């Protein structure tokens, strides 16, 4: 592996429940037209959050539950648990399957962490969301269709990178993840124009690489 190589994530398990039990529907606060749910687990939480948001743009589905597991995929509760579970709800199986398929495409082929060092042990996520779907819009408190810079790294790298990103582009903090997150990272969502968010991603990436290349620099 080399610096800036992509670290691809994997979907570990999926299931569709065509007609969810009313008791479960109440727990997830499903709407009256949401009779079907689809679940997935993967070994990377932030990539999956982006993927779930993309699912809301590709199909008539809503993210009704998404949560990272503590300590990350390396400490998962089972071989199919990974780092996150996401649940989509929709009117029927066709909608939900389409949403899950789109999420899987993003997880396996599109959004990805990158290596900040030669062995990939220091990884970061600087992903431009050109246009948010319903999920990231809600999580970021921004209008649907807004651009976001989705920035995640280990704790110190994330804080250094967030500051660099904010100074490099006309963006503002939409959501801040103070370290440590459930998976011991940090970062946030920055919002602005698509071009500004792209510049913020580039500045964040460079800041993380600077720390990785020279960690002790007072």
Features:
218 residues; Alpha-Beta Plaits; 6 helices; EutL_PduB; bacterial microcompartment; Ethanolamine utilization protein EutL; BMC_dom
Could you characterize the architecture of this molecule?
α2 (45-58) crosses α3 and α5 (155-168) crosses α6. The chain is 36% helix and 28% strand. The chain is of the alpha+beta class and 218 residues long. It has 2 domains: 8-112, BMC (bacterial microcompartment) domain (Alpha-Beta Plaits, 2-Layer Sandwich); 116-213, BMC (bacterial microcompartment) domain (Alpha-Beta Plaits). It contains 6 helices and 10 strands. The protein has helices at residues 22-27, 45-58, 93-109, 134-140, 155-168, 194-213; strands at residues 6-7, 11-17, 36-42, 62-68, 84-90, 113-115, 123-129, 147-153, 172-177, 186-192. It has a 6-stranded antiparallel sheet, with helices on both faces. The two termini are 29 Å apart.
CATH class of the largest domain: Alpha Beta
Number of helices: 6
Instruction: Give me the CATH fold name of the largest domain.
Output: Alpha-Beta Plaits
Structural class: alpha+beta
Helix content: 25-40%
